[in-house]
Structure to design on (79 residues):
């Protein structure tokens, strides 16, 4: 189960996966959450180890590659 701090770290990484631990620490301090960059790196490593974060991938701008991009999405619902 994710706590408030892990959720906030994930929110920041989901907007920019290149956020550094010192940057995340600064943002969290503004929200009255005091963690060192080292503690943040440990949390990120734990999130990766527990498969909460499975990979970091770039988002490529449409025009950057000069090619058309085709996306296929599969959605599965479980009852």
């Amino acid at each position: 189960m994710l706590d408030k701090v892990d959720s906030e770290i994930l929110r920041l990484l989901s907007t920019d996966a290149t956020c550094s631990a010192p940057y995340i620490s600064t943002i969290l301090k503004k929200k009255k959450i005091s963690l060192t960059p080292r503690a943040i790196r440990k949390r990120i490593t734990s999130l990766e180890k527990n498969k909460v974060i499975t990979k970091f991938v770039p988002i490529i701008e449409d025009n950057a590659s000069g090619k058309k991009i085709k996306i296929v999405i599969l959605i599965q619902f479980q009852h």
The two ends are 22 Å apart (CA to CA). Residues 6 and 47 are 8 Å apart (CA to CA). The mean pLDDT is 89.
